[in-house]
Amino acid sequence: MQPASREARERLKAAMARLAGGERKALEDIYRATSAKLFGICLRILKDEKEAEDALQDVYITLWRRADRYDPERASPISWLATFARNRAIDRLRVGKVRAGSVGEEQAAPVADKTPLADSLLIDEERDARVHTCLETLDEKPRDAIRTAFFEGRTYAQIAEEGGVPLGTMKSWVRRGLQKLKACMERGE
Length: 189
Description:
The protein is mostly helical.
């Protein structure tokens, strides 16, 4: 998981906890962070902007009332809220509150949140942490070359030119560094 998305998720978790404690400002923070995604879920199901807006409003009313029921150990905040959005949209389909052009309940059922499940996110985070830990065990030159190539997307030729070393040397540093990185990762699993 990217550091920015991890930070965003942690901010959202903190806002959920603040909302559960009764802080009104937290609802505004949660709305700003999630409304576009949740509106998209409602709109895909209902196929009507006004109905999607109404369903979204229901989501935040429900959140206000039930924020204390959120358990960060069971789901990410956005997954939990996406489930609310999907359910509110389907509820509107069931009671016939939607306009012509919306999809039927059976078509709405398979609409899923694209966010990975919580256990997948934890596995990804652990693997990311392991990669960074193993990178720190490498010598400085191969470590910096690997970071630049793989995290910044630069070519070996660009890195070699910037570092003032022959391309073959740069490729050797990266190759040997990747071998050590692989061995370190395998020892940790």
